[in-house]
């Protein structure tokens, strides 16, 4: 079974600072990878997904970006954080189109 | 109109009760469906994939009604540990995975 690692677990950043969140996956090859954000008391919003190295699809226009430098590594970045970027960031992994997704433990980001 | 809708609850039920959640989806092209549970401040964890014929896993039963575009989750003999938020998910090729806002369940002693 696959294991998804995310770090850091929590992060407090000032407005305007950069961001880098990392997700790595073990126990699977060539997964589809996803970044979601969950605002407090809200549902999950798909931000980015990737079906392979270097391939990124963006679901929502914003000041965030994603990269996939290796098969099982997915990075979420920002050059300048906004207050509205606060939330719970979840990385997910799945196989094939529409296959079951498994989630990492998440990173809780607070932008002040 | 939201893509995937759920009654946010909370549903407060006594231990041992049977509780059912419904979830409706708007995109008739949705191909696969899932139920996840999410504990407070934790990641969602897969509860069940939902198949067209319906499927059962212990105390949990999920059913899909494509004609009416809804998915249901039935929990029998509720346990205190079932308290969580239950997320309904629909997948279609164009929109990818669409999550509902979740239904909160509290099982009371």
Structure description:
The complex is a heterodimer of chains A (112) and B (109). Chain A starts with a strand and ends with a strand. Chain A is globular and about 35 Å long. In chain A, strands 2, 4, 5, 6, 9, 10 and 11 form a 7-stranded mixed sheet that branches. Chain A has a 4-stranded antiparallel sheet with strand order 1-3-8-7, with no helix packed on it. By secondary structure, chain A is mainly beta. In chain A, strand 9 and strand 10 form a beta hairpin. Chain A is built from no helices and 11 strands. With 109 residues, chain B is mostly beta strands. Helix content of chain B is 0%, strand content 57%. Chain B has no helices and 11 strands. Chain B has strands spanning 4-6, 11-14, 19-25, 32-38, 44-50, 55-57, 60-65, 70-75, 84-92, 96-99, 103-108. In chain B, the strands form 2 sheets. In chain B, strands 2, 4, 5, 9, 10 and 11 form a 6-stranded mixed sheet that branches. In chain B, strands 1-3-8-7-6 form a 5-stranded antiparallel sheet, with no helix packed on it. Chain B is globular, with a radius of gyration of 13 Å. The A-B interface holds A 34, 36, 42-44, 46, 49, 59, 88, 90, 97-106, 108 and B 31-32, 34, 41-46, 49, 87, 91-93, 96-102.
Which features characterize this protein?
heterodimer; A: 112 residues; mainly beta; 7-stranded mixed beta sheet; 4-stranded antiparallel beta sheet; 0% helix; 59% strand; B: 109 residues; 6-stranded mixed beta sheet; 5-stranded antiparallel beta sheet; globular
Instruction: Tell me the overall shape of chain B.
Output: globular
What is the terminal separation of chain B in angstroms?
37 Å
H/E series of chain A, N to C?
Answer: EEEEEEEEEEE
Counted by DSSP, the helix tally of chain B is 0
Number of distinct beta strands of chain B: 11
Rounded to an integer in angstroms, the radius of gyration calculated over CA atoms of chain A is: 13 Å
Largest interface: A-B, 21 and 21 residues
* Helix/sheet category of chain B: mainly beta
**Number of strand elements of chain A:** 11
**Low-pLDDT segments, ≥5 res of chain A:** none
Largest sheet of chain B: 6 strands, mixed
Which term fits the overall shape of chain A? globular
Poorly predicted ranges of chain B? none
Which structural class do you get from the secondary structure elements of chain A? Answer: mainly beta
Rg over CA atoms of chain B? 13 Å
Q: Summarize the main sheet of chain A.
A: 7 strands, mixed
Cα-to-Cα separation, first versus last residue of chain A: 38 Å
Count the DSSP helices of chain A: 0
Mean pLDDT of chain A: 93
Q: State the helicity of chain B in percent bands.
A: under 10%
Which percent range describes the beta-strand content of chain A? over 45%
